[in-house]
Every structure is written in C-alpha cells, then in structure tokens.
Amino acid sequence: MSLQMISAVSNSSLLQPGFSLLNFDGHVFFFGQKGWPKRSCPTGVFLLDIKQNELKMKPAAFSKDSCYLPPLRYPAICTLRSDAGADEYQYIIHGGKTPNNELSDKIYFMSLVSKTSKKITFQCLEKDLGGDVPEARYGHTINVVHSRGKSMSVLFGGRTYTPLAQRTTEKWNSVVDCLPSVFLIDFEFGCCTSYVLPELQDGLSFHVSVARDDTIYILGGHSLQNNTRSPNLYKLKIDLPLGSPAVTCTILPGGISVSSAIVTQISDTEFVLVGGYHSDSQKRLACHTIVLEDSKIEIVESVSPEWTPDIKHCRMWFGCDMGKGSVLLGIPGANKQIIPDANYFYILRCKGTDEDKEEELITQNCSQTSSEDPGDSAPLEDSEEFCFSAEANSFDADDADTYNEDDEEDESETGYWITCCASCNIDINTWVPFYSTELNKPAMILCSSGAGHWVHAQCMDLSETILLRLSEANVKYFCNKHVDLNKGLQTPQKVGCLKKPPMKPLRKKKTMKLSTSTKKSFLRRLFE
Questions:
Q1: Which of 9, 22, 288, 474 gives 20 to 30 Å between its CA and that of 420?
Q2: pTM, entire model
Q3: 89, 109, 308, 397, 398 from 116: Cα distances, Å
Q4: pLDDT above 90 covers what percent of the chain?
C-alpha cells in the first residue's frame, strides 16, 4: 500500500464528510456538496480531475428532461445493471440529508447521456414506488442482487428523525435507528416489500455492505440504541423464483466491530477494508482483506500503510472509494489555515502500479461506510464513504472549465440570500421552502421603485395565490417600504373639464334704409 498527499486547487471546502463518488466510464464524479449549489454548477455534480497530485473540480450538466436532484449527504448509492455482466449501468440514489438537514425518502436514477472534452451531461429521473416504501433515512445501504435471471435492490439500515409524536423541545432534531427491516425493491414494477428477520434485532447505520450474485454481506455498523459497534457478520441470501422472493439471514463468525470503514475492490473476489472507528475516541488504523469465493467470505488482517503523523493524531477522518483499489481520504485542516473549512486529502493505493492498469472490475459492491455528524451521535462519527469503481486521474479534458469557488458571486450581498428589508429573516443556513413552488432557493419578486430591487416574497407577507397572480399578470409591484411612497408620487387622475353654457349671440342692430331722394337732400345740407 502507498499513501500520497494531494493538494486541492479549487473548491476544496465543498468536500466535507457525507459526500459520495460516482464512476462513469472510468471518471470519478463528486456528489453531495456542503450547502446548496451555486450558479456556476447548479447540478451540484463535479468531475474530480486529479493530475500531478492536484485536485480540480469541473462542473457537470443535466439534460433538459432531468428532475431536480438536491445535494444529498449520507445517501445510499449503488450501481444498477441489467445483469451481472452488463457493461452499461446507472446509479441508484436513495435518501440522504439536504443542506437544510431534512431527510429525503426519494429515489433517483442517474445515467450518463453524453460526454465531450468540454461538457459532460447526465440524466436524473425520480422513481415512484409503492407498497412498503422505506421511510426517509440516511446512513443506510442499497445493493443489487441477481438470482435466476432477475435482479432486485436490497435496502437496509440507516437513521431517521424521532417521530413527531415523540419529539420534545430539547430533542426536536434527535435521531433514532431505523427498524432492522430488509426492503426488497423491484424497479421493474415499482413495488417494495419489507421483511423482518429474527437474526436482525438492532438497527444499524454506517455499516459496510458487499454484494455478489444473490448474497449480501453486512459488516460492522453503529447502533444508537445500544451505542455499540456490532461485531456480527450478517449474510443475506435472496432467492428470486417465479413466485414470492425468499430472504434468509445467517450470522457468521469473524466479524469486525467497526463503523465508517471504507471498502475498495482490488480484484474480482478481493476487497480491502480501510479506516473507520473502533469507538467514539479511537480511529481504526488497521486494514483487512475480504475474500469472496464459492458463497463464502474470509476476512484477514493485511499490512497497513505508513500513516502520516497528521493522520495518526487527528480526531476524525473521512473518505470514499475511488475504484480499482484506490481510496480518497480527508482529514480536517489546521486552524491556522486561511480557508476555514479546508481539509487535507490523501490517496491510498492498495494495489501495485501494474495492477492499476487492469480492466475495470465489474463485480457489484456497495458500502455505506459513513459516520455521523458530530451533533447527531458520537463525536468521531463524521465521515461518509461509499464503495464504487472509479478512476480519478484518467480524464484528459485539459481545456474543460474548472470550477472555482472564488469566481462565484458573493451571495450574501447579491442573489437569493440578500437582506431584502429591515425585517428580512431569510438565512441560507436555516431557510426551508415556504411556497410549494420553491425548491432550493426562496421566491423573490421585483419591486419597481426607482431602478428596481428584489425582495423575498415571504418577507413581504405575500400569499401563494397573490404571488402567482403577480407573476402571471403584467403589472408593477411595490414592496412594503415603497408602496406608500409610490402612492404619493403617482400622477393625479385627470379631471374632466367643466362644461360652460354657450354664450348667446349678440343681436344685430337694425339699420334703416334711406331712399335716393332722401340721400340727396342729406348731402345738399351737408355741403351747404
């Protein structure tokens, strides 16, 4: 094993505990950023381009027919193929936490649509399910099993918020273990069925799960109810005959008491288990090799890498499987760093250089090996790792645009998170959707006063009906501050002119007509 430090050139503050990695055509994509996506990358999905020990993040796009996908932390993710040997696949994403700490119960399908040197486009679709639909949760796992020519997904574990009827003011956002039920999901018909197995007594979260053919092995995990890390090794076998599926569970010896471990595949039948925690105050620095052969599992301790002093002495660590025996590890940065949320990152390679060039492994495996937020449970439970097949340093799009957080507008001054008025209470860290039309940003409306400025509809006490009418009608709107001023500056209404009675025309003076003899007599007298 070899350990190599890398420097994060752009936007390393987005890589926080709880993220996921997706692999399409050998390229690693980051999903589950800290905070809501910004304008430079509204999808929240980035290509992780690692070259010459430098990590760069490049935005990815969604197709026009895609649904909205929020940045989910601690979801369950796995690949779905038509059969075990198929080359084409898509990712299943279920559950997770939004930046507002709300839990999702939705399930998404994500596939690669097109890829060029400058643009990568995905399609994301939401799937509706019926039957015993799993509740909203995080820290769980989902795997795909193949039996008798059919495929189904298996969901297990996780945590959820305390039911509303049991919440108190002091523990309003406290979390509990989900019931230890096993959910079988048939995506062809869109139905779910839950199974209660006597061998599974306690809820588990942040465990490792590895699937092969019709069998899933569940290793480790943390139980909130008992505050323990299970030493049991569970074997779930799913039989898919023509009738109803059959699910059986067997408890095997040789398990490991660990949570938040990372599993990466190094060959068709071998996996390496790295990292995690033995207890709330003790990291797990040992490594183990997992071998799956002939419906059997063998776990043996292997040689650990030469951990750096920073890794040995840090209180927490997190990471993800990068595929082909490589793991991305992160530890908190020093307090003296200029960037507040920056972390140090390492790549752990569990195979030799020659083996890294082998063809990409296709054995299905998924590990929801994450720990928890510090406020939710144990102090060290603060990482999220998944097991995927991905190649981090094989993307050659040098001319692709690199995402840089410094290029973003300061949304504390502009954009959706401004202080629109003196009574504005919209905060990016605490905001939750108020109108049914809102997704990840608050609804805003333009005040036509002066040069115009934007205000939050919620701060203006606008009902949803009025807001829709204003958006549809071609009328000017004035905010609460300027509505009275606008009334004072309005041009007075035109008043009709008063109708004056017409003046009577002057009467013509009557003139006397003189005869010719009279005129001559008058003239004689005038000249005499």
A1: 474
A2: 0.69
A3: 19, 22, 38, 8, 12
A4: 28
Q: Is 453 annotated as a binding residue?
A: yes
Helix (H, G, I), strand (E, B) or coil at 415: helix
d(CA 346, CA 326) in angstroms, rounded, equals: 10
User: Is 94 assigned to a binding site?
Assistant: no
Q: Are 184 and 153 in contact (CB under 8 A)?
A: yes
Give per-residue burial for 337-373: e unless 16+ CB within 10 Å, then b.
eeeeeebbbbbbbbbeeeeeeeeebebbbbbbbbbbb
- What is the reported pLDDT for 436? 72
- CA terminus-to-terminus distance, the chain: 152
Q: What DSSP state is assigned to residue 263?
A: E
The structure tokens listed for 525 are 């007298």
Report the amino acid identity of residue 251.
I
The token pair at 257 is 């008491």
Burial category of 234 from C-beta neighbours within 10 Å (exposed 0-12, middle 13-18, buried 19 and up)? buried
**Maximum mean pLDDT: which of 83-87, 260-264, 522-526:** 260-264
Beta bridge partners of 115: 120
Q: Which of 14-23, 236-245, 342-351 has the highest mean pLDDT?
A: 236-245
- Give the count of alpha carbons within 13 A of 103, CB side only: 21
Strand residue runs (E) in 175-304: 175-177, 181-186, 191-196, 208-212, 215-219, 222-223, 228-229, 233-239, 246-252, 262-265, 270-274, 277-279, 282-283, 287-293, 296-302
CB–CB of 220/256 below 8 Å? yes
Residue 178 labelled as part of a binding site: no
User: Residues 127, 109: contact at Cβ < 8 Å?
Assistant: yes
Does the CA dihedral 388-393-397-401 come out positive or negative?
A: positive
447 is in an annotated binding site: yes
356 vs 27, 37, 222, 323, CA distance in Å? 14, 33, 33, 10
Within 8 A by CB and 6+ apart from 418, the residues are 411, 412, 424, 454
How far CA 11 is from CA of 53, 247, 518, in Å, comes to 15, 44, 121
Does residue 146 have a known ligand-binding role? no
**What residues does 279 pair with on adjacent strands?**
282
Task: List, in order, residues 6 or more apart from 346 with CB less than 8 Å away.
Answer: 3, 4, 5, 6, 308, 311, 328, 329, 330, 331
Q: Which domains does the chain have, with CATH numbers?
A: 2-354 (2.120.10.80), 440-480 (3.30.160.290)
Task: Compute the chain's Rg from CA coordinates.
Answer: 36
Residues 421-453 pLDDT 10s: 888 888 776 777 788 777 677 888 888 887 778
The answer to the question of whether 482 is labelled as a binding residue is yes
Q: Is 459 annotated as a binding residue?
A: yes
Q: What is the DSSP letter of 35?
A: S
pLDDT, tens digit, for every residue of 150-172?
899 999 999 999 888 887 777 77
Q: How far is 81 from 389, CA to CA, in rounded Å? A: 14
Kindly tell me the number of DSSP H helices and DSSP E strands found in the chain. Answer: 5, 34
